[in-house]
Amino acid sequence: MNITMLKNLFLLFFLIATSLFKSQVSNVTISGIVKDKAKKKSVAYANIVLKKTSDDTFIAGTITNEEGRFSLEGIKPDNYHFEISASDYNLEKQNLYVGSLSSFIEIPVIELEPSSVKETKIDEVVLTSTNKNEISNQMDKKTYSVADNISQSGGSVLQSMQNLPGVTVQDGKVQLRGNDKVTVLIDGKQTALTGFGSQTGLDNIPASSIDRIEIINNPSSKYDANGNAGIINVIMKKNKQNGWNGKVGFTYGTGSLWERKENLPTIRPQYTFTPKINPSLSLNYRKDKVNLFLQADNLYTQTLNKNEFVTRTYDDGTVINSQLKRNRNTNFLTTKAGLDWNIDSKNSLTVSGMYGSEKIIDRGDQPFFNGDMSQRLRLWQFLEDELKTTIMGTANYQHKFKEAGHLLNVGFNYTFHREDEKYFYDNYLPTSTGTDAFKLLSDEQVYDFNVDYIKPLKYGRLEAGVKLRNRSIPTNMNFIPGANSVLDVNAGGWATYKELIPAAYTNYIFETPKWEAELGLRLEYVKVQYDVNPNHPTYKSDSYNYTQPFPNLRLAYKLNDKNKISVFYNRRVDRPNEVDIRIFPKYDDAEIIKVGNPALRPQFTNSVELGHKYNWHNGYLYSALYHRFSNGTITRISSIVPGSNLVYAVFQNAGKSYNSGIEMILNQKISKVYSFNINANLYRNQIDAFTVTNLYPTPNYFSAEMQKAISGNVKFNNTFKFAKGFDAQLTAVYLASDIIPQGKIGSRFSMDLGVKKSIQNGKGQLFFNATDLLNTMVIKKQIQGAGFHYTSDDYYETQVIRLGYSYKF
């Protein structure tokens, strides 16, 4: 990658950012109570008038009710003053500053003096509001509408994230700023659909079920401490209009339009012209105090999920060429239904349920040839039959106190997730044939209970809460070996993962016209017990527990109406997930065997960031400098044991690692027709030298020298809004080469195009898109293991065209 060119691009961004500023924020609700200063009783029917300080313009007005309370809605950030008057009382005036941190503000009690008493002095009250801009005014969160991502419409959630600023996708995982330690939430909650503490299944959740995606690089203490790279919150669709309304849609797509690289000899054909079918339905009915909602989506795909060509060279000079080709059929059904019940003006209850069913059928081939391709040494042909079932029930109760924004939320969430996997392998050797098989069954149950409290204050708000999680995952593995099998039948049996996490947090937000501060602390106690079959030949039962504080701090200064600078600090943790410590070997490659490690321990990370946002009338420039330091870095280590060519990949704590970089987002509207968004991220990754011991299948030692690399990515989104409801989007993505555990991954480039047309008086919509237009996205890796090294090129399916239609009613 040409670093000089990238630096010049960053400089260009700064030079462009010389325009004027216009902040885009949402509205704030102001409430308070008026009392008699002497008698301390409420003053009913007092007049409340809000005026702009700069020109004394009338903004809003109301009167107090019988309890002396009032409320004003739709107030924009600015400087104001109140005028409060009532019969037999002196006129009271108070200056007001409306900021940008809280949607609801409770003004301290306003006391009126009887008219015979001299008027009181003017006090200052600070009010805040929430910014609904793409990048929040606090610069801690970026929010993107899935509907605006035209070039990825009709695919999965993972595909819809690929073009978002700051996000990259590698090996089926989302990365934020080059780090895959990302916690993924659904509607603000961890679920089995996306993993508890990890990320799974994003490539199979239909994007048609999603409303928007939030990227949180610096989470506050109210979020779970897991995920050092940050949080991605996926918000599902839900309508609240009166009466019957909804939306139906249908998308058809085709991928793998031709073979990018032909198979090695003697194996079955690759998938080509793979179908993608996605019907979706959203229904809503609202009347009086009840709102009923239903969201159902089905995503059926055929995919050339993997097509990796590998050359593996051992230290003794042996060279093996292989290809791993995987044709995948996936059917993912997700349904969410529930009701919102407004019991009265102060109390409400939401009850919902979600059902997800993911069926995966993989048919794969993996031939192995000698160095000059003159002899086939081995052929594995496999069938994977996997069914994942998720059931989730949620209940949330909210109590609104008399003050606007003064809330108590109580929630309960239950999740059941079954993982039922069956594998069958035909093992062809030059002189014999055998069939291996194994079956894994895992039932996960999670109980979450939380209480959250929000209290608006004169200069901000106070947030506090408690959470309790109880999680258990019993797993059973049965190996059925055939002739010449490599299966370790002694490694089967049972294991049970148990997790208990009580936590408490408090978060205080403060704001004045120039300064903003947010200080939070989360205290978590974690107890993990992993019980292993006593007869297991390698691993034994293990456990750990800790009580740790996780602070967060944000300090911001408003240089002027055009510029704001923020400093962030937080401490977070990445706990090993159950699959990271799972003791059962996973044979999804004939000669690369993955296995967990019960001795794995949490990875703790400290992060600091300096952010700056510069706004103007038709755009903004956001930039951030960040640094992360991790201790106990969790990574997968590959090694071989003497006398075998099998590669064993085992999770380990590799020691210290660092991630530092600069991120910039330039958003500019050029005209009514054209706007663009450029996101650039330049970072440095470093993994210190380390030595570990892999216990499976026999103890062997691995040492690695320090790895470091400068990498980055650039994304260029172009949006066109033509007349008569016709929109288009063109996106280009460049990912520079980067380091990965024990090796490097090469640079990649792709270009996506999408168009959509509004029809039927705005109720209908047609769209067409094409991903990886030039068919350039190839994953190239170089891996250095203990006793071997290999290079690989993965020509998996990246080019897909889709046509879709939706109708709102």
Query: What is the overall shape?
Result: globular
Q: Write the CATH fold name of the largest domain.
A: Maltoporin, Chain A
- Spatial extent as radius of gyration: 29 Å
Averaging pLDDT over every residue, what do you get?
Answer: 85
Percentage of residues in DSSP E strands: over 45%
**CATH level-1 class of the largest domain:** Mainly Beta
Low-confidence stretches: 3-25, 117-133
The CATH homologous superfamily name of the largest domain equals TonB-dependent receptor, beta-barrel domain
The first-to-last residue Cα distance is 50 Å
What is the total number of structural domains?
2
The CATH architecture term of the largest domain is: Beta Barrel
For the largest beta-sheet, the strand count, sense and barrel status come to: 22 strands, antiparallel, barrel
Describe this structure in words.
With 809 residues, the chain is an all-beta fold. The protein has 2 domains: 28-127, Immunoglobulins (Immunoglobulin-like), CATH 2.60.40; 243-808, TonB-dependent receptor, beta-barrel domain (Maltoporin, Chain A, Beta Barrel), CATH 2.40.170.20. 3% of the residues lie in helices and 62% in strands. The chain is built from 3 helices and 46 strands. The strands form 7 sheets. It has a 22-stranded antiparallel beta barrel. The chain is globular. It starts with a helix and ends with a strand.
